[in-house]
Amino acid sequence: KLIASAVSGDWDSRLDEACFGDEELRDRVNALLQAHTRPGSFLDQPAVGTASSFAKFDQPDSAAIGTQIGPYKLIEQIGEGGMGVVYLASQREPVRRTVALKVIKAGMDTQQVVARFEAERQAMAMMNHPNIAKVLDAGATDTGRPYFVMDLVKGAPITEFCDSHKLDTKHRLQLFITVCQAVQHAHQKGLIHRDLKPSNVMVEMHDVTPVPKVIDFGVAKAIGHQLTEKTLHSGFHQMVGTPLYMSPEQAGQSSIDIDTRSDIYSLGDLLYEILTGQTPFESETLRNAGYDEMRRMIRKVDPPRPSLRVSTLDAKALSTISDNRNVDARKLSHQLRGELDWIVMMALEKDRNRRYDTANEFADDVQRFLNDEAVHACPPSTLYRFRKLASRNRASLSAATLVAAALIIGTAVATWQAMRARESQAQTEIAKQQLDQRYRIAKEAVDTYLLRVTQDEELDHPSFRQLRRKLLEAALPYYDQLHDISPTDEQSRAARAETLNQLGNVKQELGRFDESLASFEESAKLFDELAARNATKFAYRQSLAKVLANLADHYRTRDANSESLEYEQHALALRLQLVMENPDNDLLQLELAQSYTNVGVGTQEMDGREMLERAIEIWQELADRFPDQPIYREYLSLGYQNLANRYAWDQAEEAIPFHDLAIGLLERLAIEQPDSKKAHMQWAQSHQHLADTLEKLSPRLSDARVHYEESIRILKAYSKRHPESPEVKSHLANSLNKLAHTLKELDELVMAHETCDSSLRLWEQLQLEYPDMLEYEVGMAAAQQNLGAIVVAQGQATEGLSMLTQSRDRLQKLVDRIGPHDRSNDLLRTITSSLADTRKVLGQGRERSS
After folding, report:
1. pLDDT, mean over the chain
2. What distances in angstroms separate CA 723 from CA 189, 654, 672, 727, 730, one per listed residue?
3. Among 230, 55, 227, which residue's Cα sits nearest to residue 141?
4. Beta strand 191-192 with 97-104: parallel, antiparallel or unpaired?
């Protein structure tokens, strides 16, 4: 079958299936097929070498023993790989020494194999590290078969060496650090090994010191340069490396996207075996798996932690492994548990963004463990593990959470109802006090639950949007009950008004806008009545101002801007009065600044800027008084940002200093809070806002580009540490799309195309992961529109117009699909605006093409 496929020229997929990812076997069979279809010499012009007569080398490799190649006499065969045979050789002149000589195998006369062999020779020659086998000489035989001569490594594979010398864990780790440093050297030379495994890390003794040597760069990949003039590539579906030690990306569809972190994964495999005596995946399991199943396991299945793997061994195997490490069998698992588990599993992360960035970082963390210092590796966060669990068990998780929430709230309300029943039996003052207390407990339980659902950042993750909605819907009947049963005295009326306000928030979150409006209005009416009867209690007026602000927000989401501004101004007047009466109340000052901001943003005239400036004055004063509380500096930065955006409408140049002030504040906040998603997103957005302003100033397009690129840099750096954040990814995709548009305006069309491609890929990834997020579909359509315009500008009108049409159709479907249950009209406005832009660009593209 293979020969029949070879005749037709289509044997790659059959080779992959037949060889089960065994690279060496694949190369040998491939060479035979090549020889069958193209008999004769594989070189049109045989390489000119310095070798002497080598007639025996057209015979099988075993017959070459005793042959002389230049100054080297072949003594015995000591190794064999996919492309070449390694001999022990004796050199007589100009110096006497024993070396290892590797020559391409007889019959391996294919262009690909010769290219790969020469690439290995070049790769080895680039190395200059005491722990990497050194190339001493190179040439070709008279028949044109290339060879090279290297140090003879008289040692054993690192795992065998460690076991035979019964090294304890400490000495094994010290040896492994040296291997990492050698791999780092290769990476600095621009090479990825791609086949790190025990047999390619040999250890020999120099006096009493074990010295590891990394060998066999036969499948090494160059980074940023070419190793050889000859064609060298791997088939699209061809796996390069050894499956037991292969990174998930190597087991993917192509080796194009391989980087140095692939070697980090293989080093993790190696350390796993050095510590446990076992490979992360059992060799028998992989061997018995089919080709596709093997790839799936490598890419998707997480191996057990080293300590867990050891603890599950049978008594005999555990005894042998413990004896080889000079440790009591009962203590070995405990010795590996914790930091060593974390270090190994960080290197073995399926997502390479979560691995060590470099081999040196890996080595440093191992050294920190040996020094009894805190390691950088740590177990995945609870949130990360919970999200992975949620992605696998969404239905059951949602049901379990709803049940738990219902039990908590139901218990609280049932307790209150039990006390109410009791009241009918004993109408005493004590019973009434107990009733009121139970009511407060029940309401506090529901309020606490609601606060967690609406404000917890973890539940705002797209994976939990549907769950969040269900939790809010579960809260509704309990708020209705609390609203209906609240007593009629002043304190209870205040509680009822607050409940209605919360109920309005819940219903608005669920998209039930008419119902939320009724709740807000009734709440405002109750607080207004309470405030009128108790002029000395400013808490009622403070609560009334909050409800009025909620009403303003409600009307803003419904596009009723005049009604929204009216409520904002009413809230502002109340807060101004409250601050005049209570000038030392910081919370009232903060709420006043928020009202100034809301009115300032909603007012078109000059008064709007003055309002924003007053808000900035308040936040500046609070930030000066409380320098250790970053929240006030955060508000201040947003105040500058809002003011800059107001100036950007018609006076873009005047906006730039305020953008700069916001950027400076947010940069310091992000440095102070390195793990704060909010701080980094706001910092990145501040650069993006400045770039948006600079784009309006045509002569400053290059400056806009710089700030888009800085926004992208910030988001990429944060995403590298926290790759599970889709919000950061969506902001990154948006910034990339904006940068692509600017590059198009600068007529850098090739770079614009590449950048827009990156944006589109991110949007596609997000949309696949979170299909219910309409915002991601809108982002994808916008990137598709931008890419279409770029492609048209590049002169490919047909392809570009097709992209623009797809973008238009996607947006039109979203407009038709969106309904009152969705989050707010803000999204509908965004879609409609994007659709209008797309139609405009589509028209321009058609004009240009015609």
Report:
1. 76
2. 28, 37, 20, 10, 12
3. 55
4. unpaired
Q: Measure CA of the first residue to CA of the last residue in the chain; give whole Å.
A: 52
Identify which of 544, 540, 593 has the alpha carbon closest to the alpha carbon of residue 567: 544
Predicted pLDDT at 736: 95
**In this structure, how many other beta carbons lie within 10 angstroms of the beta carbon of residue 672?**
11
Residue 459 CB coordination number (10 Å): 16
Higher pLDDT, 758 or 412: 758
Between CA 180 and CA 173 the distance in angstroms is 10
Structure tokens at 848: 């240009």
**What local confidence, expressed as pLDDT, does residue 346 receive?**
92
User: CA angle, 54 as apex, 51 and 58 as ends, to 5°?
Assistant: 130
Q: What does the block give as tokens for 688?
A: 């993006």
SS3 call for 575: helix
**What DSSP line would sit under 135-156, residue for residue?**
EEEEEE-TTS-EEEEE-----E
3-state secondary structure of 104: strand
Instruction: Convert the pLDDT of each residue in 187-211 to its tens digit.
Output: 887 788 888 999 889 999 988 899 9
pLDDT of residue 767 exceeding 70: yes
CB 566: neighbour CB atoms within 10 A?
16
Sign of CA dihedral 314, 318, 321, 324: negative
Confidence of residue 51 (pLDDT cuts 50, 70, 90): very low
- Alpha-carbon Rg for the chain, nearest whole angstrom, is 35
Give the integer Cα–Cα distance in Å for 233 and 236: 9
- Sheet of strand 209-214: strand arrangement: 156-157, 201-206, 209-214
Could you give the CA distance from residue 63 to residue 82 in angstroms, rounded to a whole number? 19
Other Cβ atoms within 10 Å of 62 Cβ, number: 9
- Pick the closest to residue 154 from 101, 195, 100 (CA basis): 100
Helix (H, G, I), strand (E, B) or coil at 305: coil
Beta strands 146-150; 97-104: pairing state: antiparallel
Give the model's pLDDT for residue 755: 94
Tokens found for residue 390: 């949620």
Q: What is the DSSP letter of 199?
A: G
Which tens digit of pLDDT belongs to each residue from 333-376? 888 888 899 999 999 998 888 899 899 999 999 999 998 887 88
Q: Which range, of 369-373, 483-487, 503-507, 784-788, averages the lowest pLDDT?
A: 483-487
Question: 832 and 815 in contact (C-beta within 8 Å)?
Answer: yes
| 503-550: pLDDT as tens digits | 787 677 767 778 889 889 988 998 998 888 887 788 889 999 999 998
Nearest residue to 561 (alpha-carbon basis) of 525, 598, 516, 597 = 598
Q: Is 195 a catalytic residue?
A: yes
Task: Measure CA 416 to chain center.
Answer: 47
DSSP state of 378: -
Q: 628: which residues sit within 8 A by CB, 6+ positions away?
A: none
Sequence letter at residue 295: R
Q: What's the token pair of residue 416?
A: 């209150």
- Active-site residue identified among 16, 27, 163, 195: 195
Report the range out of 344-348, 603-607, 625-629, 672-676 with the highest average pLDDT: 344-348
